[in-house]
Amino acid sequence: MQKTYFNDAVIGNSRMLACITSRGELVRLFWPNIDYPQHINSMRAGIFFAGQQYSTLWLDGESFRHNQQYIKDTNILETVCEDPDRGLRVTQTDYVLPYADILVRNYKIENLSGQERDMGFMLYSSGMTSNQHLGSILFDFRSDALIHYRHNYYISIASVTESYQFQLGCNAFESARSTCLCGCDSIGMMNDGALSWKLGELKPGDSKNFTLFICASHTLKGVNKLIQEFKNTDIQESYEITRKYWLDFLKNAKQLKTHREDVESLYKRSLLVFKLMSDEKTGGLLAAPELDENFTRCGRYAYCWGRDAAFITAALDKCGLHDAVDKFFEWAVNAQLDDGSWQQRYHMDGNLAPSWGMQIDEVGTIVWGMFKHYEVTGSIEFLRKMWESVRKAVNFMISYIDPETQLPGLSYDLWEERFGEHTYSCAAVYSGIMAGVRIAEALCRPESETAEWLDAAKKIKDAMERVLWQEERGHFLRSVRTKLNPWGCEHSERTTVVKVNPKGFMRDVTLEDPTIDVSLIGLSVPFEVFQPDDPRVSGTAEIVEKALYVPSVGGIKRYENDNYIGGNPWVVATLWVALYHIRRGNLEKAQSYLDWVIRAQTSLGLLPEQVDRETGKPAWVIPLTWSHAMFVLTAFELYGEEKSS
Known about the structure:
- By secondary structure, the protein is α+β, with helices and mostly antiparallel strands.
- It is about 35% helix and about 25% strand.
- It contains 14 helices and 28 strands.
- It has a 9-stranded antiparallel β-sheet, with helices on one face. The protein has a 5-stranded antiparallel β-sheet with strand order 5-4-10-16-14, covered by helices on one side.
- Strand 6 (about 65-70) and strand 7 form a beta hairpin.
- The model has no long low-confidence stretch (mean pLDDT about 95).
């Protein structure tokens, strides 16, 4: 079953990550890492009326009006569900405990009708399984809990209130709708079940609090222990502890002072997103919570890319979250391959994720990020820990250079769509090699160790000027030797044939790709191959902005004729142009782009990957961590470090 493509809200504790819709439905639950595995197929919560068959009202249903917000400056989510026709209002508060892997769901049920009502609470849950025959569920009478399990993952659902009825499988959803559950079996090889509770009689104007909690553990004993511990906990105290945890987290980060509430509010939300997207166990940085499990419209997002992560770590350093940056680069060292490279993307535990090709820019960007972190912290000890990784990475990048063009060899571009030799990738590799040189200098390594590195970087820059700059066009090429038609022969007239792997496999490629792409700004921002005021860079940037601006809704799209998810403007692309304008001193223009991004946020303050080119509403991935990182980087550069503390 294809889930919703939109994660309207996210909560968690950096070990558990939960995704919730605007209607309050829990649609994804990741644990023990924030990317894998995902445990929830479907979970529905509802209210029923005692003695009335088929009276269950699912809180995410059409009869309810929904209003949602985060509790100010926290990752605690409040969803108000109101059915005016039935005089019923339910306020749902969701949060994950910072000190335990428990998701708490508190419900305040209010009877707004003019009559007394005998009500109950219904829950239906279907657990995820890799095989329809491997789903298992049990009802534990001692802990009064419904427990999904598969191998060493146990996910329990319980309440501090004793349950009324339960049912495992046997068309449990239909039984939940009917309000009558049949708990004849207490364990079975099925993946769904239902639980109900009596709420009692509520007079007009009365309210009742009811709390569910979801625990995760690797053993049955472990999950039952968590259940008992939480039942002995004061619920209001657990809420206050969680609220204070998030307030303290923000207090300990660098404060951004802009005298603009909208900027500062989005900055705080970005910090809260960073914490959720940083895996506490491993240090991996999540690009986004998953939204397309079945690869129906994209290649999935719940992975760690070195490219995204390097921009994110730069933002984390701006925020003063240096420990998270240290932990990420430790993760990167462990994930690095023996030849010094990193593959396209990884799981949070450092294992290789599904991939389709080397992206050489990521190798350069990670090393660039290491040096940028050192520039902020001044930690020589950090560089010592990184040195062997840096050495291997730089040597790999040099070995990857195409002897014919003197550019970094064939790989996929930063958008992961085209195989070739790309200007952005060249800039990242050049900057990565130069970062390696500067790291060696900081560590007082002998110049003989880096002489080859300096020479290689110089040759790459010379080749970029010779091969990629197009005087007659007035801008840099996007790529050379590139595969524009991945499914067959190239359609262009000027092609050649190149060897694409050591086994001698050959492919035809297009000699030059002049497509205007926002990543061309990477020549200057952030990789500083050329200065922002270099006429070639400024000319390219002017053409980029003119060609890629979307007049209908504003913002900058990735490249000409982009058709991914309709060819929308991107937050990352728009802020990339803003950063360039800041470097040129065009602060008013940069401010206009930042304001556009602020308008692009969701009602909860989350930044999407894209903005719909027709409606102007947030589109596709929500939240995208890279979008939040670019916002933070732009906000700090625009308002100035001296204005923040």
